[in-house]
């Protein structure tokens, strides 16, 4: 009997189909599992990024703290005299603010002093204040026994030279009469200081003096020594107002070239100290009664 092809068939066909189906199922399961793991990893990464982003949002960057600077007020007394022009040149060239307390009588003493006065008036970054008309003729005890005469002496300089400025410094006395500070160094002068304040004047003293030999007109301290004194006064809290130091110097000392060099070096070293800022006395806390026009013209401070 003759057999057909279907009867004989291929004995391995069902087994092949079975294996093929099994392999296909295995492949499908593996791919599915890999896809699941990939999505799981992606979600975890996304969540981590979100968590980092939320952390950054919750903790903003800290703001930079700007350190408050201590203020120093350079003041020069007794001009115009032979050293005033040197002082003016130095502070102008170094571009620092300075206050000049002038003696009215000195303006009219010579043509040179009159020219220096003119230079002061046209200079920028400075302030001109009142140091009386006669400087008490250097007889201070007698001068302060008559308070009305002291007021008249200040008013003469104000009327003739400084009609818009009420800031004064008493000759030979370290006394203060401002809104925030009342101080009298020598009690016998108290009545005169009170009279000046009642007459509308703001009396400005000082915290530190650059001393000099009155006979030789040579400064007693180098620029470095004076800078150390400035640092010490601030550290020990010995200024009349915290973080504000008024420095007193005298114009006549700086007619000497060596002393002028010390002044320039001192100013340059001050400028290099980040802790300090130079200002005019009209910006001292409690000082008032300075017209806005004067402030705009003269109250220019270093950045």
Give a summary of the structure in a few sentences.
The chain is of the alpha/beta class. The chain has helices at residues 5-8, 13-58, 84-93, 104-107, 111-122, 140-143, 147-160, 190-198, 223-235, 257-272, 292-298, and strands spanning 70-79, 98-102, 126-130, 167-168, 176-178, 181-183, 202-203, 208-209, 212-213, 218-219, 244-250, 276-279.
Q: Can you tell me the overall shape?
A: elongated
CATH architecture of the largest domain: Alpha-Beta Barrel
Could you say how many structural domains there are in total?
2
Q: Largest beta sheet, briefly?
A: 6 strands, parallel
What is the CATH superfamily label of the largest domain?
Answer: Glycoside hydrolase/deacetylase
Briefly, what CATH class of the largest domain? Alpha Beta
How does the helix and strand content classify structurally?
alpha/beta
Distance between the termini: 120 Å
Describe the SSE topology:
Elements: H1 5-8, H2 13-58, E1 70-79, H3 84-93, E2 98-102, H4 104-107, H5 111-122, E3 126-130, H6 140-143, H7 147-160, E4 167-168, E5 176-178, E6 181-183, H8 190-198, E7 202-203, E8 208-209, E9 212-213, E10 218-219, H9 223-235, E11 244-250, H10 257-272, E12 276-279, H11 292-298
Parallel strand pairs: 1-2, 1-11, 1-12, 2-3, 4-7, 8-11
Antiparallel strand pairs: 5-6, 9-10
Helix pairs in contact: 3-10, 7-8, 9-10
């Amino acid at each position: 009997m003759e057999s057909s092809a279907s009867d004989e068939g291929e004995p391995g066909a069902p087994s092949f189909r079975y294996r093929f189906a099994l392999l296909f199922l295995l492949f499908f399961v593996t791919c599915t599992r890999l896809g699941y793991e990939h999505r799981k990893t992606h979600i975890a990464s996304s969540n981590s990024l979100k968590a980092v982003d939320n952390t950054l949002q919750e903790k903003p960057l800290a703001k930079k703290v700007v350190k408050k600077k201590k203020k120093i007020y350079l003041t020069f007394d007794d001009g115009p005299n032979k050293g005033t022009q040197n002082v003016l040149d130095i502070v102008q060239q170094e571009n620092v603010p300075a206050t000049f307390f002038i003696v009215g009588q000195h303006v009219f003493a010579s043509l040179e002093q009159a020219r220096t006065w003119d230079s002061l008036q046209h200079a920028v970054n400075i302030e001109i204040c009142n140091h009386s008309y006669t400087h008490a003729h250097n007889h201070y005890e007698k001068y302060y026994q008559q308070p009305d005469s002291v007021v008249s002496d200040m008013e003469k300089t104000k009327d003739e030279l400084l009609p818009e400025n009420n800031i004064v410094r008493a000759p030979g006395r370290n006394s203060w009469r401002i809104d925030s500070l009342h101080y009298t160094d020598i009690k016998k002068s108290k009545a005169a200081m009170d009279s000046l304040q009642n007459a509308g004047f703001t009396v400005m003293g000082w915290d530190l003096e650059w001393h000099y030999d009155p006979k030789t007109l040579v400064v007693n301290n180098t620029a470095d020594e004076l800078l150390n004194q400035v640092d010490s006064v601030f550290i020990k809290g010995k200024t009349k107002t915290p973080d504000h130091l008024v420095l007193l110097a005298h114009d006549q000392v700086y007619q000497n070239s060596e002393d002028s060099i010390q002044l320039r070096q001192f100013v340059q070293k001050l400028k290099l100290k980040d802790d300090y800022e130079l200002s005019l006395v009209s910006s001292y806390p409690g000082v008032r009664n300075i017209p806005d026009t004067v402030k705009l013209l003269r109250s220019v401070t270093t950045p």
